[in-house]
Structure formats: structure tokens, C-alpha cells
Write a structure and sequence with these properties.
By secondary structure, this protein is of the alpha+beta class. The chain has helices spanning 32-35, 65-74, 82-91, 94-103, 106-109, 117-131, 151-161, 166-179, 186-198, and strands spanning 4-12, 16-21, 24-29, 43-53, 56-62. Helix 7 (151-161) packs across helix 8. Pfam families: HHH_5 (PF14520), RuvA_C (PF07499), RuvA_N (PF01330).
Length: 200
């Protein structure tokens, strides 16, 4: 098992990066949040987990151990694979996901792309006992449009990971705010921002 990587960022794309370690380039899948903090030519350290399939070996990287641990925990639930586990981390912090499962907050869970009401109920049913009691204040609340907490930062990071500048990202986010469209997941908001930038 490859538990972590420390090396130089050789390249970074929309959903992955190549980390050069002792002359070997490791392709690492990651969320926009993690990729946004990687800069080509600089050193980084990522917590990792290796997903082994009959036809492939895929390495996933995370900025924190908490993200990696939640990524692995979510996949112990039936019907949850790496893609869905990554989507959860793109929308919520690890603490927020754990809290939602522990308290049965299915409304927060259904903000994750690919998770409907039945899927949210299943996550609570199958993982609540594994997560246990989650301490700490509820520090994430959707804004008055029904959008998830922290969506602006997440959309900005996603756009920058795709190659746009921070200024372009801020402009697109401002336009979304002005339009006031009520969207409830970061993936949809990111697509809307891409359309805004593509129309320039």
C-alpha cells in the first residue's frame, strides 16, 4: 500500500496530477480542492490510497489524512465507489460529511452529486455506527439560495485547476451571484461557471 507521496509536482490537470518521486512519476487522482493547492515545480506531500481493480491500479491523493480516511470509509458502504467518495469531498469537508451521517442529515448528503434520497439513507444506515459521535459545532450552513457552504471557494479552486486565473474565477462567481440561480450542488455551479467563462 502506498500511504503517502512526497515529491515534486510535474504536472496538474483537471482531475489528476503527476508527482515525481526519485525519478518516478506517479499519476494521482485528486479533487479540485487538493489540486488547487499544487503548483508545478514545487514540492508537495499527499496522503494516498491505492485502489486495486482487476484491470487497473489507481492512486488517489489527499491534502489531509482526514480526507483520505473518509474516502476509504465511504467506500465500505454498498454502491459507493471512488468517484462518489471523491464527489463527497469536493462538496463537503470530512467533518461535515461525518456529522451529516452521524446525525442523519440526509439533506446535506443529497447535495453530493450522485447521491439521492435513498443513497443518503443508505449511507446513514450503513456508516452511522462506524462514524460514532462527532463532536464540534455545526460550522457549515447553506446560504440563502440553498447553495452548499463554501461553494465559492470550491468553484474557484475547480476553475483554477482547469486552467483559468483567480481573476476569471472571481468574475464568473460574481456573475452567478448576480443571477441568483438556486443550485444546490458544487458540480452544477462549477459547470455554470465554465459556461459563463466560455461565453466570454
Amino acid at each position: 500500500m502506498i500511504a503517502s507521496l512526497t515529491g515534486t509536482v510535474a504536472s496538474a490537470g483537471a482531475d489528476s496530477a503527476v508527482i515525481s518521486v526519485a525519478g518516478i512519476g506517479y499519476l494521482v487522482k485528486a479533487t479540485p480542492n487538493t489540486l488547487a493547492n499544487l503548483r508545478v515545480g514545487t514540492e508537495c506531500s499527499l496522503h494516498t490510497t491505492l485502489i486495486v481493480r482487476e484491470e487497473s491500479l489507481t492512486l488517489y491523493g489527499f491534502a489531509t489524512a482526514a480526507e483520505r480516511d473518509l474516502f476509504e470509509l465511504l467506500q465500505t458502504a454498498s454502491g459507493v465507489g471512488p468517484r462518489l467518495a471523491q464527489a463527497a469531498l469536493a462538496v463537503h469537508s470530512p467533518a461535515a460529511v461525518r456529522r451529516a451521517i452521524a446525525t442523519g442529515d440526509t439533506a446535506s448528503l443529497t447535495r453530493i452529486p450522485g447521491v439521492g434520497k435513498k443513497g443518503a439513507d443508505r449511507l446513514v444506515l450503513e456508516l452511522k455506527d462506524k462514524i460514532g459521535v462527532v463532536a464540534g459545532p455545526i460550522d457549515e450552513v447553506a446560504d440563502d439560495t440553498g447553495r452548499p457552504p463554501g461553494w465559492r471557494d470550491q468553484v474557484s479552486q475547480g476553475l483554477q485547476a482547469l486552467g483559468w486565473s483567480a481573476k476569471d474565477a472571481a468574475s464568473a462567481i460574481t456573475k452567478i451571484d448576480v443571477e441568483g440561480t438556486a443550485q444546490t450542488d458544487v458540480a452544477t455551479l462549477l459547470k455554470q461557471a465554465i459556461r459563463v467563462l466560455g461565453a466570454k
